[in-house]
Specification:
globular; 2 domains; Hypothetical Protein Tm841, Chain: A,domain 3; Rossmann fold; 4-stranded parallel beta sheet; alpha/beta; 11 helices
Length: 284
């Protein structure tokens, strides 16, 4: 059986991953002062960072169901028996709902079960690793249910942690309460957050960015434990900090089976703000 894998642009797969693993990526939309761009296609990191630092209005929007149904039909027309579509947490975006609507339409045409949709309950490379795992299992001839199970398992086992320079952008986007954001700013705290049951949730507050980065490394090492893991360090406008963190994790995690440093794109970056550094720990 041939199973095609589809995800969305908030996975922020490192360069070459989508092609290498034959994953179709459906982009979300980013609006800067009302002008619309496709995430990961026609807006780059520098443009986003400049817009956010200039306090221009940056908003995001999910793909349309039509975008998904087009991707599903193309995959099926190109020989796939089933499409597995795995997406950003429904707690963070309406993307999963748009994918479900498209799947219902295509399943009515092509037969029930032609398209299966997964709410990953995570994002960035927590989502990306789940899509890659699904694609790898698919290449071994697994059926749709087995590929779906692989994606769900990988997403559930991932650990995603972030350090932000400020909570202000999350507050503006409604992803975190105003009181929490004001308190953090007033105390000059650097917030550590994580993905918990599909939501971005405060984990700790640390004074100074350097201490926050040290704590981020400690938490990633704790999450890895004695397991064999893959690591993704992702950032927006903070390459040097991200690269240093990757070097530290490479030295401290004995079971490390690869560490990539990759940029975050506009949709997640619009909500976290410039300077964010995140780590995804994925058990192999």
């Amino acid at each position: 059986m041939q199973v095609a894998v589809v995800t969305d642009s908030t996975a922020y797969l490192p360069e070459g991953y989508a092609v290498r693993h034959a994953i179709t990526v459906v982009p979300l939309y980013v609006l800067i002062d009302g002008e619309e761009y496709l995430d990961g296609v026609d807006v780059d990191q520098d443009t986003l960072v400049d817009a956010l630092r200039a306090r221009r209005k940056v908003t995001t929007s999910m793909p349309t169901p039509t975008s998904f149904s087009k991707a599903y039909r193309e995959a099926l027309d190109n020989g796939a028996d089933v499409v597995l579509s795995v997406h950003i947490s429904s707690e963070l975006s309406g993307t999963w709902g748009a994918a479900v609507a498209a799947a219902d339409e295509v399943n009515a045409e092509r037969g029930e079960g032609s398209v299966r949709v997964v709410d990953s309950r995570t994002t960035v490379m927590g989502l990306g690793f789940a899509a890659v795992r699904a694609a790898d299992v698919a290449t071994r001839g697994a059926n749709g249910a087995e590929v779906e199970a692989a994606a769900v398992s990988a997403a559930a086992r991932s650990r995603t942690l972030f350090v932000l320079e400020t909570l202000e952008h999350l507050r503006r986007g409604g992803r975190i309460g105003a009181a929490t954001a004001v308190l953090g700013t007033a105390l000059a705290m650097k917030p550590l957050l994580h993905i918990d049951d599909g939501k971005i949730t405060p984990l700790e507050k640390v004074r100074t960015l350097s201490r926050a980065m040290t704590r981020l490394a400690d938490l990633a090492v704790e999450a890895a434990g004695d397991q064999q893991v893959q690591i993704a360090v992702q950032h927006l406008g903070a390459y040097e900090r991200a690269a240093r963190l990757a070097e530290q994790l490479d030295a401290r995690i004995p079971g490390l089976d690869g560490c990539v440093v990759a940029e975050l794109g506009a949709v997640i970056g619009a909500h976290t703000g410039p300077g964010v550094v995140g780590v995804v720990v994925q058990p192999v």
